[in-house]
Design brief:
Blueprint (H helix, E strand, L loop, with lengths): L2 H11 L24 H5 L2 H12 L2 H17 L10 H18 L4 E2 L22 E2 L15 H6 L3 H7 L4 H12 L4 H8 L3 H16 L14 H16 L2 H5 L2 E8 L6 E3 L1 H8 L10 E8 L2 E9 L5 E12 L2 E8 L2 H8 L8
Parallel strand pairs: 1-2, 3-8
Antiparallel strand pairs: 3-4, 5-6, 6-7, 7-8
């Protein structure tokens, strides 16, 4: 194996889709540091993806940021001082990548961030071209330490990720690193190249911002109970039957619904049903297919009856459950990008 083969294989281990010139290649295989291998970086991918998702609000941008961070790390692997320093070094690189990306993009949001709920009529459907929406992420992309799964899922809830986007980028990074990943203030200060008092002050302001939305960054949510799972089974059956009476018993009276990329969102069960049995009547006869847990919540692929036969993809439904009822429904309509992400088929034949 020559030196070019070693570098190419290392990049493949990182999943890097980059083209290297001869100047990028090490002069000889012995130049590869013995203390660092591609696997030493790759094992941090999920933790980095979770971090970058909270920073950027998009799984696709998070993947791009992590890939760029790993490529930069591999190219400059001679700068890390042993395996013990790899994690903080990678997070420093990933933070810088995210900060660079955030300089040139508008913050992501949810429909409820843009204004009040509106009447459930088709005339209120609008796709604002200037808005970038929060996008869902499957839990499998962000779960890292099994001991931290409950906190990790809570910290990628859609409402929290949207609230994080309101924070200045460096303040956002400090809050995620300290309150979610449990870094010491001194470690955060070192990574952000600032002082501990500055970090603590930023954390106080960030928590106050989240508090205005009745959110915190690290309160774990309980896993779905057997009763919750039975509730979801009843919801699937009731939705597929389009059974108003059964659905009424499953959805809380003050529940909300949104449908990105439309900015219309609905508050209260009566308005939700007015939409479902009015402008949204085309969803009658849909099939729901369970998929991986998304943003800490149960999720289903919705397929509408197709004029050509079978069922065509319509939405990724992400449901929030609380106290035995469904309290929020988010219908993500960008199925072309999202269904492959969560492992759903492109269509159903039966």
């Amino acid at each position: 194996m020559n030196e070019a083969d070693v570098y190419v294989l290392a990049d493949r281990a990182l999943g890097a889709a980059v083209t290297h010139t001869s100047e990028d290649l090490p002069a000889r295989e012995s130049m590869l540091p013995r203390q660092l291998a591609p696997g030493d970086l790759e094992q941090h991918r999920r933790a980095l993806t979770a971090y970058c998702y909270r920073m950027l609000g998009s799984p696709f941008e998070a993947e791009d940021a992590v890939q760029e961070a790993l490529v930069r790390a591999w190219r400059h692997r001679d700068r890390v001082e042993g395996r013990a320093a790899i994690r903080s070094w990678l997070f420093r690189i990933a933070t810088n990548v995210c900060l660079d990306m955030l300089k040139s993009t508008q913050r992501r949001a949810r429909p409820m961030d843009l204004g009040p709920a509106r009447e459930p009529i088709e005339a209120n459907l609008n796709v604002p071209v200037e808005v970038r929406w929060i996008e869902p992420i499957p839990d499998s992309m962000v779960e890292d330490d099994p001991a931290d799964i409950a906190i990790g899922r809570e910290s990628v809830r859609l409402a929290l990720v949207a609230a994080l986007q309101r924070l200045p980028a460096r303040q956002r990074a400090a809050l995620i690193l300290h309150d979610v990943l449990r870094w010491e203030a001194s470690e955060v200060a070192e990574l952000l190249e600032t002082s501990v008092p500055a970090v603590n002050s930023g954390l106080q302001r960030a928590r106050a911002t989240l508090g205005k939305h009745n959110l915190t960054s690290a309160d774990p949510s309980p896993p779905l109970s057997p009763a919750d799972r039975a509730l979801l089974e009843r919801y699937v059956a009731a939705f597929e039957r389009y059974d108003l009476e059964a659905l009424t018993a499953l959805i809380r009276e003050d529940a909300s619904q949104s449908m990105p990329p439309y900015d219309l969102w609905l508050r209260r069960r009566d308005d939700i049903f007015a939409w479902w049995f009015g402008p949204g009547i085309g969803c009658r006869g849909s099939r729901l297919l369970p998929t991986v847990t998304t943003n800490g919540c149960p999720a289903f692929g919705q397929y509408k009856p197709s004029p050509d036969g079978g069922y065509a993809p319509w939405a990724l439904q992400v449901l929030e459950v609380s106290a035995g009822l469904i309290v929020e429904l988010t219908f993500f309509l960008d199925t072309r990008r999202l269904f492959p992400l969560v492992g759903l088929p492109a269509r159903l034949d039966t």
